[in-house]
Batch of 3 targets.
Target 1
Amino acid sequence: MDQLASAFGRAKLLPRTMTALIGGAVFLAAAWAGGVWWVAITVILALLAAVEYAGLHPQVAGAQKAVPTGAVLAVLLAAAGFWTEQVLLILGAVVLLAGVGPWIVRGMDPHRWRQPAMLILIQGIAYVGVPLGVLARWRLQGTFDEILWLFVIVWACDIAAYFVGLLFGRHKMAPKVSPGKSWEGAIAGLGAGGIAGLLAGPIFGLGVPGAIALGAITSIAGQIGDLFESALKRRAGVKDSGGLLPGHGGVLDRFDAVLFAAPVAYLALRLSGRI
């Protein structure tokens, strides 16, 4: 019992929970309202996340202006409809090839992960702007229920992975990137994502296999996004991307999973004709 209390104490559960409840309520209220409110919240998030991304790369000249400007512009263009699935695939490929690919090739070791300055700028704009642009456009075209269930899947995965990893994690998944993450937590997150996807199935007209698959691929993408952001921080030598959100760190710390999960889920549903 003492071990359990100690684990929760280290996790700073109270400020983390309060931030999640208040921030989640504001975010979901904007999603429910839609329209200009939703576009405004995605633009604000893009600006804050892009500033944090630039802060993780102080060695790159012009990052503080170029990345936030490009990310916000990407969201506005997406909201205005100047964007297709083909463009999304191309920009997503930029993130994969410029960021995730080299990172994986180097054994997920952030200290061996080197990128040219221009690539860091392009990656930052795509990494922040594309997912939040997806969210902006998705809500303008679709329903609140669709956005809600995307976040239910991501949050279910995140919560299950966090608590199972905290209490039962023994086998480290990526110690060079995030020592606290375990395979036990990752598997729990995958299972929770699959269950949440199953519950979301009727919204998208999916049968049981398709709904579980939606939850699984979304949760996998979210966990990769979490690891990717952790690698950015480890390379920069910081614990959090920022200090705006008590118990969570920065905007990137809170939305790292969403930045990978949203485009993957959106593309999967678009290509299958479900949205």
Target 2
Amino acid sequence: MRKPKIILSRKGFDSGTGGIASPILDNRMYSLPIPEAESGIFYNQLNFSENHSYLYLLRDLGIKFYSETHLDPDLNKEIISGRTNNWRPVFGQTGAALSHLNKFNIQQGDLFLFFGWFKEVEKINHRIRFKKSAKDLHVIYGYLEVDQMVDLEKGNPPSWACKHPHVVFADQYNPKGNTLFIAKKESSFFSGKPGGGLFSFSRELVLTNSLQENSWNRSLWQLPKSFFQKGRCKLSYHENKTGEAIKGNRKNLCVQSVARGQEFIINSNQGILNWVQSFNPYII
């Protein structure tokens, strides 16, 4: 029986796009989707809380020059009000990153784990601020288990996905390849949970090596030993990297993640599957 491939997929604000970390508030992670003009989806349409939008969140964190956004991956039905009952989590990819996914024959049953740059925040006098003591972290915040793949050069997307940016900008993406990955209705990894969604923050989801002793580097990762074979990392784009022992941590090895790239793929084994199934999705 084919074991699923696991894809670590880098998404959200970073130092080059957006310029700040996405916030962690009360053990919930809010990935900030990157800006994109003329997308038709505005930050003030995205629900951050009962009374506030993502625009409020951005303003509090000092970002004042974006209005529209590239909402992808789209993992939370409730982030936009009034969605239909048949909506599912969805993710689009194009260009070199899509070619990399195709090279590894990503298909139904494979699992995207979305990660990004995060930092803890707090509310002070009704304003959200980054904690002074908070570390910059790479954290896994969401997932999508593939059910369908829609090649937007050849087929039409489901009607509920008509506002997805890879549909809206199909004319721009199509020459480079343009595919939607649609989640399963129910997850095979997380019993009783949907095929795509978000995780509650926990230390198990933190990729950054929290035990590093030298200057802090969020791209210095700790990965389970099951990601390595004879000390060599088996994650794509990292195959020539050697895992280093971490003092005080016998379960993981340390590896410097690459600076570029969006999709990092590995063939799963039982150790990797056990690691994934230790995560805790929540129902919104």
Target 3
Amino acid sequence: MKRLLLVVLTVAMALAPARAQRNTGYWEDYVQYIPAAMNLGLDLVGVQSVDGYPDILIASATAFLSEALIVNGLKLIIDEERPNGTSMNSFPSGHTATAYAGAELVRLEYGWKWGAAAYAAATAVAYGRVAHRTHWWWDTAAGAAIGIASAHIGYSTVRPIKKMFGWELPKEATVSLYPVVEPRSGALCTAVAFTF
């Protein structure tokens, strides 16, 4: 049951921002995920984190899930036209919320040394959304606030989730990534192994 929850949280964390976003064809579609990738990847490459990897996964999954729910809920409630006139879902900026949630997760887990780089990427995303006329500046400001708040929501859920499931994972739990070749198609894939 514990391992199944870890897998479900990981998948939810990976899918929540993707389902919340719409591809616009701009570079922000990809850069928005750099802070999240930093948050998940720095510990794997040996950068000292405050918490163990299971806690990082739980905090990230709940942060991005709450961010997606808040952003999509507000987009349904508030009918604001985008500056380029393409749709009526401008407020708030989901790209910016995703980027700032990841940046704040990095800052909380690794400090300002890494957090500054993550925040620079998040700020670039906010700038790009306004420069490409897909959002007004206040859309990105609200997205940034939602993202930062969502990161704190994510970390506030770690202990209750672990307590609810009687789940106390050791800090030294690991995640391994390794390449594999899919036997039928010959495609190069990545395998993930959780050890705890």
